[in-house]
Description:
By secondary structure, this protein is of the alpha+beta class. The chain has 12 helices and 14 strands. It has 3 domains: 7-52, Uridine Diphospho-n-acetylenolpyruvylglucosamine Reductase, domain 2; 58-171, Uridine Diphospho-n-acetylenolpyruvylglucosamine Reductase, domain 3 (2-Layer Sandwich), CATH 3.30.465.10; 178-282, Enolase-like, domain 1. The protein has a 5-stranded antiparallel β-sheet with strand order 4-5-10-6-7. Bound molecules: flavin-adenine dinucleotide (FAD).
Amino acid sequence: MFPTSFTYHQAQSIEDAVAVLERNPGAKILAGGHSLIPAMKLRLAAPEALVDIGRIAELREIRVDNDIRIGAMATYDEIRNHVVLAALFPILPEAINVVGDQQVRARGTLGGAIAHADPAADLTAVFQALNGRVKVTGPSGEREIAADDVFVDLWTTSLQPNELLTTIVFPRPAPGTKMVYAKHSHPASGYAVVGVAVVLAMSDGSVSDSRVVITGATSRPARATGAEGALNGHSLTSTTIADAASRASAGLQINGDTYASEEYRAHLVNVITRKALEQAAAR
Ligand SMILES: Cc1cc2nc3c(=O)[nH]c(=O)nc-3n(C[C@H](O)[C@H](O)[C@H](O)COP(=O)(O)OP(=O)(O)OC[C@H]3O[C@@H](n4cnc5c(N)ncnc54)[C@H](O)[C@@H]3O)c2cc1C
């Protein structure tokens, strides 16, 4: 199918992109296009204008200082192949390796994945588990949004329609932090039926702080607070892991569909959490 007609703007700078968004309330940002273009072809999205941000060089920059800053237009491949990033955050290449196929990883961007907020996306959960934040620029300037406040609902974030996500910021992980992404993929689409991102700060052999984030099962990435509570202050023994995993789905609003019922998905959340925690313990 063909998309409805639209005007095309190639933004030359962040300010230019924001100005075009401001002048065109029906406009959408075009990043890698791997979610937006299929949605337009299926007429699930019909933006009146596209603002292509692909030529804005600063949106591709990756900077490693005290904080780690990844430009919104950095592609999955650029992030996966960045040696320093991979050493600091092994969970990034681990999750990217199970996103779509090589074409998707070559063009898809981290900023696009977060802004799109697909409920079965992989990197949204990783972003939240790493306690990231995003910088966004709009007509009244720049603001930051913490990961826990970014995702609102299915395909919905707290960004305003006239705001551009420019940068993803991650705090430097404490030495010894364990991180794992585990996924049960849908056999047809490859998207997560359930994905679990686990980031565990360790102190004297015990978990001092944990972030366990579920994707695929809920309308937006969700912290598994039951599991986190069972991990904090404990060493990663098989008993702790079994206890934490059994609490992973507690309190979550789990969705069902024709492939996986609500009950099955809730069970899978616990199973994949256990798998992720066992892998974390072995690292
Ligand atoms: C065949 C296929 C398989 C896939 N499999 C997976 C998978 O297994 N796991 C997975 O997680 N994803 C998967 N994806 C989705 C892929 O990861 C997308 O590329 C990604 O979700 C969106 O990134 P993008 O750069 O392509 O964004 P686009 O498609 O360009 O944009 C997506 C949305 O975000 C908005 N947007 C993009 N960038 C910004 C920005 N900087 N500021 C504000 N708004 C912005 C756009 O306006 C649009 O609404 C798959 C896609 C395809 C086509």
